[in-house]
Write a structure and sequence with these properties.
It is globular and about 40 Å long. The chain starts with a strand and ends with a strand. The protein has 124 residues and is mostly beta strands. It is 0% helix and 51% strand. The model has no long low-confidence stretch (mean pLDDT 96). It contains no helices and 11 strands.
Length: 124
Amino acid sequence: QVQLVESGGGLVQAGGSLRLSCAASGRTFRNYAMGWFRQAPGKEREFVAKIRRDGGSTSYADSVKGRFTISRDNAKNTVYLQMNNLKLEDTAVYYCAADSSFWGPLNPNEYDYWGQGTQVTVSS
């Protein structure tokens, strides 16, 4: 089992920044690719970003490319999502997820473990 706990969400004005953290415990963190997903009210959960087990490769949704950065610190068992230039449409509950594959899938249904989510609200 892997337990994931997100933090860092909140209310921010458009154009502002937030950094989300996801702390993992349980099994060896470095053995899991990590992903960030988000779900807005009335919408399906969507892919935001993912990072390879060793942090050597990342991938982003087109909607966040150039604004968000995913990173991980395997010594601290934590994955981060730095979000800059936030837009109203970024408002959602953000979830981190862990998958035992090396690269990590894009499909949320393929992830093994999920955190409880953290709310990000962007205001005008």
